[in-house]
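Severity: low
Component: inverse-folding endpoint
Summary: output formatting inconsistent between runs
Steps to reproduce: submit the following structure tokens with default settings.
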């Protein structure tokens, strides 16, 4: 079976890292496959929500150290970072795509896996989930973590998390605001499904525009972002979804959005 699985259920696409025997440790082929899959899903107008999760009891344990030790993994001569186009890798793709991505954090995430989770738009965690930064392995959070963490938790807290590389359990992840919600593992799949269903029912053009403008707002001054927001808003006013939202409001019914 593929190390990256794709399942479609209506407008929801679930992407699963599928190496459960190695806690879904990431390999070069997985990076390429995951990046390509995310790009393809973002280009599919019928997909309104992407869910990213891991098979088995873990989300992603980071780079495959068994492969590295054997001289065949990422960081070895056989498969070096120079073999990747960074803009095609999952952290870059997650940063630029407009489709909302929900991380279903089903278990431990370390190193690359932690960065993947942080790069998603929403993170719903099982109480079995955890984050472990990779510094104790002699590397750094290379896939977005050093950019994301200071923005999410502030400079001093980001330094504490990264430098000390302590394992952060689910309760600590919620306290730090690194996940949206922590739920008992028995309720995890149901809760993810509820959040995803609610997202999928939202107007997709507005969700994409909201994601774009917030993303750009992180790197632009207020005035520039305000002008971009107004351009997006004028486009949304001309959409069929906006007309449907007005009609549904006046008719006191639930809207049905088409993404047009």
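Observed output (run 2 of 3):
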């Amino acid at each position: 079976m593929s190390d990256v699985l794709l399942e479609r259920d209506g407008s929801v696409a679930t992407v699963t890292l599928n190496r459960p025997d190695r806690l879904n440790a990431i390999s070069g082929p997985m990076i390429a496959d995951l990046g390509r899959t995310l790009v393809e899903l973002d280009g599919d107008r019928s997909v309104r929500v992407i869910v990213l999760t891991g098979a088995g009891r873990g989300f992603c344990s980071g780079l495959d150290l068994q492969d590295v030790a054997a001289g065949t993994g990422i960081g070895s001569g056989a498969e070096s970072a120079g073999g990747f186009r960074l803009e095609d890798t999952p952290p870059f793709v997650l940063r630029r795509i407009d489709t909302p991505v929900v991380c279903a954090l089903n278990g431990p995430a370390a190193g690359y896996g932690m960065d993947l989770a942080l790069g998603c738009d929403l993170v719903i965690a099982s109480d079995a989930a955890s984050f472990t930064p990779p510094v104790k392995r002699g590397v750094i959070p290379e896939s977005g973590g050093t950019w994301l963490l200071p923005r999410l938790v502030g400079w001093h807290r980001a330094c504490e998390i990264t430098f000390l590389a302590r394992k952060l359990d689910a309760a600590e992840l919620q306290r730090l605001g690194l996940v949206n919600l922590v739920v008992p593992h028995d309720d995890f799949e149901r809760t993810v499904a509820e959040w995803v269903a609610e997202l999928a029912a939202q107007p997709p053009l507005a969700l994409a525009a909201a994601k774009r403008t917030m993303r750009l707002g992180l790197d632009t001054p207020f005035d520039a972002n305000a002008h971009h927001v107004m351009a997006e808003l004028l486009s949304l006013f001309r959409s069929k979804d906006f007309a449907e939202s007005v009609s549904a409001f006046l008719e006191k019914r639930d809207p049905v959005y088409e993404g047009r």
